[in-house]
Design a protein that fits this description.
38% helix; eight-stranded parallel barrel; 381 residues; single chain; alpha/beta
Length: 381
Amino acid sequence: MIKNFSVFYVGNIDLEDVGLDGIPANDRRYRNERLTQSMETAEKAAILMDELGYHALWMAEHHFQREGYECIPNVIMMGTHLAAKTERLKFGCGFNIVPMWHPLRLAEDYAMADVLTGGRMIFGVGRGYHSREVETFGSPVIDNDLNRELFEEQIEVILKAFNSESFSHHGKNYNIPPDVPYRGYDLEEITLVPRPLNLPVETWQPVVSGSSIDFTVKNGFNGVVALTGEKLVDQAFHRFRDACERNGRGNVLGSGLALGIGFYIADNENDAMERLRPFHDERFKWFAPFGFVRYADEEGRVWGTPGAPARTPRIEDGVQQKAWICGPPSHQIEFLKEVEEKYPGLENIMLHWPEGMPRDEYLSQLRIFAEEVMPAFTGRE
């Protein structure tokens, strides 16, 4: 049963001349005073969301983005700051790109944020996809196998650090602690200081393929499926449920998952689509080259795979795939009720901020959604 509504804000600034015919993504380059607008926007969004009763503001960790799309390099630090500006809102790491961290530094930073915010941070982990940032930090991402191998060992280290009073780890990439003398004794184990107050740590990971789903479920993590066509959503939800059943985590379809959707509220679907169009197009102008078009054709083939469409999607495609929901509040409620009936274990909905949409316009949309859609779902037994 749906009960939590959150927002996924990746850190975009207000962009001018958006849409497929606007400024090419690679030609955008902004000065520092414009790029720091993302932090001001996050603060305004958090304060409004706290007032309106949203569950969490999720933010994305990214680096070096002079283009203005994803401009928050440390979401743990940002969330800790925003917790001091709000009363109830939680802050999700969507996601900490683990290969760019030493796993113990990431574990320490999250644990400290958990303490300072009184448990209002939500941990999230990902493997990364920007070669410019991951490879610059000295870790692999172009070599997918090496990236996965590193990530999985890092997660092993992080979980030991969170859950053990003291621990050691000796693997391919990390030797913790090193074999060195310390104050008259041989170092054999270490303790994370501080450790999180709330254990086990609630952890989320994006899920797409069968291998990522198995890893997510086995480690006790929750999964996020976002801006994905309904056929692929259904496949992922069923695979996740099956993996949960194999690992003793129950068999309720939708349990342990969050569904991310795009939306726009207007008097009718056509009006909403036209208002959303330039921002939707700007988003995919940036993201499509990374392979982030998670739509399926009539035969169930993912866009970009042999035989399936390989073009940049239009808003019509997103609405047809039910990844973007456009129309009046009643239309939003109808869609969410259908999702709730189909996936009875689903509790979390994430509303995606289209990367080209100006701050004031999106905050206005969040207010309408909170006042006219959320009451149909929140506060129920």
